[in-house]
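Lab notes, practical 5.
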Amino acid sequence: MTRALRIPLTPGRHRRYSHLVSADTDPKTLAATAAKTILERFGLPSIDVALVLGSGWSGAASGLGELIGECELADLPGFAKPVVVGHGGQLVIIGTGTGRTAALFTGRTHFYEGRGVAPVVHGVRTAAAAGADTIVLTNGCGGLNPAWGPGTPVLIRDHINLTSATPLEGATFIDLTDAYAPRLRSLARDVDPSLDEGVYVQFRGPQYETPAEVMMAKAIGGDLVGMSTALETIAAREAGMDVLGISLVTNAAAGISPTPLEHAEVIAAGKAAAPRLRGLLAGLLERL
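Output from the prediction step:
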């Protein structure tokens, strides 16, 4: 017999929602259910653009547009409360100055939580199912370039996936030549011409990379190291979304940093960089 999980939802503007979601529901069906729930809850025909705010980025979420509504991510089908300090736990829906609707996911599920790939990319698939054609994926990361001090945002040009995992199943061949859209990177540089770009390397985590692993990442072309984003990008490209990736360098990577790595550094760098990050995201939303 199929086991069912009851997913409680807080009241929406117009009605109360209650869902029974099968424990073995297909991930894309679950994303479609979550998307339908979001659109009905906030009385929207669709979402235009989505942003996933990673470690150090949640403080930049305020004041980006006219608030339409918000709810806890854990109250939506298939989502869980973020477990990492420095992530928010809300879905925030805003209207941009250009008349588009943006969904801000102020938290994510990480692969190292051990729940599998599908929960990691559930937010991306939900945004796509709700109609979003563009997604901005952000993260906090370790930097390999000494010129990028803590608090420096860097555009992701490409990635290297070292998780040995993928959200794709079967003979699903997705071209990742321009996984991070050149057009969107150009728009970001219109907002902030000082932005550099680099290659992001996703490790499985949750332990920080060793100095030897960091040197390996550098040897194979990496500039940034972290524990998210690449798997989400693959799912976004499968769904036909254009992706803009932005890393916030929160610390020098192991072997480059003169001090031991601590998550507190990530939080501190995000707080210090919040005004710059908010300005960057606000400028992007005016152009997307």
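Observations recorded by the TA: The radius of gyration is 18 Å. The chain has one domain: 26-38+45-285.
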